[in-house]
Each structure stands twice: as structure tokens, then as C-alpha cells.
User: Fold this.
Amino acid sequence: MHSAVMEMLKKYNCVNTDDYKNGLKEIIQEIALLGLYRSDFFNTAAFYGGSALRIFYGLNRFSEDLDFSLLEPDGNFDIGSFCEAIKDELGAYGFSMNVEKKIKSFDSNIESAFIKGNTKIQIMDISSEIPGIAKLHKNEKIRIKLEIDTNPPAEAGYEVKYQLIPVPYSVKLFDKPSLFSGKLHAILCRNWDGGRSKGRDLYDYLWYLSQNTEPNLKHLSERMKQTGHLKNGESITTGELKVILADKFETIDFKAMKADVEPFIKDKRELALWSKEFFISVTKDNL
Assistant:
């Protein structure tokens, strides 16, 4: 394994196979960002979502996917043109991964691709003495989805962040108020039926509150208009936001939410207070 990857792994203090799996997955995400930077992807797109929070703001949970939004609508955008750059960058750091565009089965504003590789092979390239590696199925895959919104809602704010490892590079991403608005939209408007429960959304929501982040309400309003949750000409205020969040928390299955987020955090005690009463109270006092 490349020496830079070994150095990056040190910050995870890995003691078991799950630690190495999570650490390697995040390192692959960061090297993918480096490949996108080298291919000038961030001239036309910005990074957002849970992985952006984790990598650039220190969110204390792992995230599965890489989410991006174009800076301007472009129905002809093709993520396939960037897949080779990501694959080449990963290969340069010792990762044998496939990067493939997902073929759409229906018309949508989302372009997708997947980074895939054999989990056991990647870990054994580090060491065959890692506790629990023998129990890993030989065909288990590391799988990271990339999604790009090609019809971005308006009024987002952006900033540029820098990374020094494995080499210096920069990423354009949504600023924190706009990131918060994206998370609020997910909580309020995501279809949580049919197994789509996202306790990770609620975990991130509490993180934003703990950081005293004020949401970009203009951007949230544009997102809600785009999905039909607000009419054109309407906008949402902080007072209205608190009311509809409280209504949402009344309907949530918090047991399911905890089960969703537990695999992505180390200390399950963080979830002990989760209940509708807790979320309604902290929203009233901190939003």
C-alpha cells in the first residue's frame, strides 16, 4: 500500500476490521476528490452532504456517498467523463477499483457513478494480521456512490477548502448555511417510507445546531419549491421552519432512526436522548 495511504490511516486508530473498512472507505473518498480536482471538476460543481461535513468540518460520523451539485443547470452534463480520472488517481495510490457511470433507467436530474473494489484485497494490502480479516467474505465490496445534481436549486453559497494530504488540493463546496439547508430539506421532504429511514439526517441536524449554524433560508425555499413543497413566490421563515420541524418530529420512528445511524458512529451513547420531545425542545431553543 502507498506510504501516503498508510499515513492517512493513522488518524483512525484502527483496532478491528470495521475500523479499517471505514477508514479505507473515507481515504478512497478523499483520493476521489483529489482526482476530481485534477480534472477541473470543481470549476463547474460543488461538494455537499454528509461526506463534505465529515471531511471538511469534522462531523463525528462516517458517510457512505459523495454528493455534488453543479453550479449552474446543465442537462448535458456527463459524469462519465470524470470516471477515468478518479480511477487513475486511486490506482496511483495502490487501490484497484472500478469507477463506472450508472446508466439511467428513467429521466432524472441526477447523474450517478460508483466506485467499487474488493474489500478484503484492499485491507490485506495493508496487513494480513488485522483482527477479524479472516471473517471477511472474499467477495465483499467497498462501494461508494457519486451523485451529481444537474439542475441545482438557486441561492446556494459556496466556499473553497484545502487539503494537504495526500498532496495539496482544493475543493469547492457549499458553505455551512447552505449545507444546513440541504439537510433541513432532506428531513422535511425526503420520502422516509419503504426503508428509506435516515437517522443520519437527524444526527447531522443536531451537529448543525451544536455549531450554531444559521440555515440559508433562501436556498431552503428554492429547494422546497423545486420539490413541490412550496409554491412559486413563497418563502419560509425561521418561525415557520420550527413549526413544520416539530410536526415532522411527531411522526418519526426514533427507534428506526437510531438503528440507521449506529453503524456510522463509534459511541452509541450519543443517541440516548433521541425522542420527539428531545428534538422538539432543542429545535425550539437552538434553531
Notes: The longest strand covers residues 110-118. DSSP finds eleven helices and seven strands in the chain. The radius of gyration is 19 Å. Residues 114 and 268 are 29 Å apart (CA to CA).
